Fold:
Amino acid sequence: MNSLAQPTRKAFDEERFAQHEERYVNALNDAGMLLMVSIGHRLGLFDAMHGAGPLSSSALAHNTGLQERYVREWLGALVAGRVIENDPETNTYQLPDEWAALLSSAAEVTMAVYAQFIPLLGKVEDDILHCFREGGGVPYERYERFHEVMAEDSSQTVLAALFDGILPLAEGIEQRLIQGIRVLDVGCGRGKALIEMATRFPASTFTGYDLSEEAIRWAQDEAQKRGLENIRFEVRDLTDFDQTAPEASFEFITTFDAIHDQAKPLNVLKGIRKALTPDGVYLAQDIRGTSHHHSDADHPMGAFLYAISCMHCMTVSLAQGGEGLGTMWGRERALDYMQRAGFTRVGVHELEHDIQNDYFVCRP
Structure:
């Protein structure tokens, strides 16, 4: 007889099972709704319905130049998803103002933007399965439209608050930008934040680095369209940035949601410290987490952000032979990395409009 105490098996809780089953069925319905929201956002259907009053499927198809049969099925999905209202007597459809305030481009924050991550990341599921079995990661080039969607996200979390909320966190930086300083954005993507700053502060010079050739081309084209001569963009692998960073070359350096998916995040942070002048400021936006799974369960978007990490941020780092920190590396680990990179003064800030990010102001 085994002398070790055997664990007691908990009795099967029928009520708890029923709650889980209901939650799961609701999640399936919500997943279908999100797929349709992504399509509606990309095709401009929510904008076409916003403020238009009751519309037939034919009228909506005509107004958007789309095929009626597809529009009708899309409407059916979102009526079932309790997003769009249907009047069976007139067979017309209407987008309630409360949903328009979330999903149309007139919304303060267009939540439909985030629905796009579901189909976008679903395209690499087979690649991720292979990585689960064999290791490694999925490279950036497998993610079609990722920089496009991230640029939409950045427009809402960064651009909307850049001048009134984010830059003021770095005390005195706006006045220095007016007078003229050198600015670097690391992992700039399509460079939207940098382009807005270059437009607003013509006396300063701006540089953007990113690994994506597609994103850099877009940024260069946009800067050229605006006639900006104080900005440049460069395709750059930052894996060895601790060695290759230009020493004391920038008074202000920014990263927006960029450190956690780097192959060598500590090297990037050390490079930023090296490139910063002694009186310089480094301002970083990165995902708000706790560095612990049990506490991240309380994050309002925890499951969604971990899924994005598994399907993108962690794996693109591993694809480069990197550390694979993941989206939810957390505040505790971020502070540790920043201190190890050589920053002696680090302040952490939260902004009311942004529930998913922390803002770090770092000084040598």
